[in-house]
Write a structure and sequence with these properties.
The protein is an alpha/beta fold. The chain has ten helices and seven strands. 41% of the residues lie in helices and 15% in strands.
Length: 278
């Protein structure tokens, strides 16, 4: 049987639902042979996932998904096969955590100005092992009766243009690519079709990504419309990039992002795992 590589998924250490243990078990149940845990801006779950993967008999690729920006637009870059002890990675993660912390404090201050004191501590109750973000503030606002639902919290206080909409100033992606390569990893442009760009802009993004040292793009991200993988593969080929694939799994009950449940890569693809299997 052809091995299945799922090189993009999330645990509850970022915005996923499952623990690393349960994530690995689910991957095994879906016949995944090689799994990369790529939580947002953190590697906290990898050690646990590595032990679980050893027990389950599958290979765990240490990874991360960094938040970055390109001309003010939010972009995500996955780092694969990274050295968790590399100084560049440790410093990069610390910088991202500090950025998220500053943003959370700013959101809490804005909500306090609207009469909702204690929002920071209240939101922390819902963050668990995750980094604090707007969904946690939304749950707190529901708890105290300020709104009836998380959706209403975003509509009134946390969504685009609202009082709690504090813009995140992520580093440029050449800096993030440097963190990944400094950790011996491979920098992958995540889910390029999800940025809602024209093909002209996407080619410009990919060109800049490649020039900055990026090495691959995800030609497959979960279940996609017919022909999209081939389209993304053309862009990869245009800039001499390798190809990656992943479910971008977050939680059960989302069949379009189920672990391992996506099409095979195009036949002419140069798979990203060539970097660490040769």
């Amino acid at each position: 049987m052809t091995p299945i590589y799922d090189l993009h998924c999330h645990s509850f250490y970022s915005d996923g639902i499952l623990s690393p243990n349960d994530l690995v078990s689910r991957a095994k149940a879906h016949n995944v042979s090689y799994l990369a845990l790529t939580d947002h801006d953190t590697t906290q779950g990898i050690a646990v996932a590595q032990k679980a993967a050893k027990d389950e008999g599958i290979d765990l690729i240490p990874g991360i998904e960094f938040s970055t920006q390109w001309y003010g637009r939010g972009i995500h870059i996955v780092g694969l096969n990274i050295d968790l002890d590399a100084e560049s990675l440790i410093n990069g993660v610390a910088k991202q955590e500090n950025s998220r912390e500053q943003r959370a404090r700013a959101i809490a201050e804005r909500l306090a100005a609207k009469g909702y004191d204690g929002a920071y501590q209240g939101a922390q109750k819902y963050s668990g092992s995750e980094l604090l973000g707007r969904p946690h503030f939304a749950k707190y606002l529901v708890e105290i009766g300020a709104v009836k639902s998380v959706a209403q919290a975003f509509k009134r206080y946390l969504g685009a243009g609202k009082v709690g909409d504090v813009k995140q100033m992520w580093p440029d992606f050449d800096e993030v690519i440097g963190w990944i390569k400094g950790a011996g990893g491979v920098a992958v442009l995540a889910h390029p079709d999800k940025y809602d760009m024209t093909r002209t802009k996407l080619r410009l993004l990919t060109a800049d990504f490649a020039e900055a040292g990026g090495e691959a793009i995800e030609v497959i991200s979960g279940k996609q419309k017919a022909g999209l993988a081939t389209d993304m593969q053309r862009i990869a080929d245009m800039f001499g990039l390798h190809s990656s694939c992943g479910s971008d799994f977050h939680s059960p009950g989302q069949p379009w992002q189920e672990l391992g449940a996506f099409e095979a890569m195009p036949k002419n693809a140069r798979p990203v795992w060539e970097f660490w299997s040769t």
